[in-house]
Specification:
Elements lengths: L11 H25 L1 H20 L11 H19 L5 H24 L6 E3 L6 E2 L3 E2 L2 H20 L6 H25 L3 E3 L10 H21 L2 H10 L5 H16 L3 H16 L5 H7 L8
Antiparallel strand pairs: 1-4, 2-3
Helix pairs in contact: 1-3, 2-3, 2-9, 3-5, 3-9, 4-5, 4-7, 5-6, 5-7, 6-7, 6-9, 6-10, 9-10
Length: 300
């Protein structure tokens, strides 16, 4: 080779291997971070969140802290982190496409709901959950809603076990699970003033129309999530990633506690059913709690 010639650029396979190695390194570090902080993320954050939100609703916090949107968004993102890290290896172009459609659908159905009262019933947000899209819907809405659908899907896959390979039982169970999620979420959210229905409904202020709306929106969302992932890859990842459902644990603790504090006993009971579902996955027990503690706390 002539000394004046430049070296050949790296071949595409070499570049892809380097990129893949970098992604794997980042993934391992993220997983290690989640594992080291499981109790903090899945238990401490939702408990502190419940106390903070109830304190905000009852006028017990100073104005800068009450319903602080940055704190709400930060806390939500932290509690979502185990789910995000768990699913990252399963994300391909198909998943990005379908989750993108789900994100657009989430904004659209919520905007229609706020402006027309269909399909949930007439409601409005009582506080600003961060920047608002069109002045009506939180810009971070997908961060709040999409993980609920993912959690319902993952729990269904683990609880159904071998039957998860059958389309109809899997979809029906996930739809029931996402409606059950809102049986916990909406009463708590109404109690702390996140939003309100006009007129108030007979289920802790939530109208029956809301659940017909969730049947519609939840069905569409569940189908989109089911189409987004390679089923075998998702099932293997969920079965081998011990913290994949930690975000659901956070949800149960946060909204279950809020419902208990406001005496919404039916809603709290549904949260208890989710606890039973989590126990049925054979990954949440006292032994799990000891292994989830940071290494510096073990053996004390």
């Amino acid at each position: 080779m002539d000394s004046g010639e430049s070296a050949d650029p790296p071949s595409r396979p070499t570049a892809e291997v380097t990129s893949g190695t970098a992604r794997e390194t980042v993934q391992r570090r993220l997983e290690a971070l989640v594992r080291e902080n499981r109790v903090t993320v899945a238990v401490v954050f939702p408990v502190v969140g419940a106390v903070t939100l109830v304190g905000s609703a009852e006028g017990m916090l100073p104005a800068p802290l009450a319903y602080n949107p940055l704190l709400i968004l930060f806390g939500t993102l932290v509690m979502r982190s185990p789910l995000i890290v768990a699913l990252l290896p399963t994300i391909d172009r198909r998943a990005v496409a379908f989750l993108g459609v789900l994100t657009g659908y989430t904004y659209a159905i919520e905007l229609v709901g706020v402006r027309t009262g269909w399909p949930y019933g007439t409601f409005e947000y009582g506080i600003r959950l961060g920047p608002m899209l069109g002045g009506d819907v939180p810009l971070a809405l997908p961060l709040f809603f999409v993980p609920l659908v993912l959690n319902a899907t993952l729990l269904t896959v683990l609880v159904l076990r071998d039957r998860a390979g059958r389309v109809v039982p899997r979809l029906l169970a996930a739809i029931v699970a996402i409606i059950a999620v809102d049986l916990v979420l909406d009463p708590g959210a109404v109690a702390i003033g996140f939003w309100e229905y006009v007129p108030p409904g007979d289920y802790y202020g939530v109208p029956r129309s809301n659940y017909w709306g969730w049947l519609l929106s939840g069905t569409v969302a569940v189908v989109l999530v089911d189409c987004a992932f390679d089923r075998a890859v998702l099932l293997e990842r969920v079965r081998t990633c011990e913290f994949a459902l930690d975000d659901l644990v956070s949800f149960v603790l946060l909204w279950g506690a809020i419902n208990v504090l406001y005496g919404n006993w039916l809603a709290a009971g549904v949260a208890g059913l989710f606890c039973l579902g989590l126990f049925r996955t054979d990954r949440y027990d006292l032994a799990m709690l000891s292994t989830a503690l940071p290494e510096r706390w073990r053996g004390r």
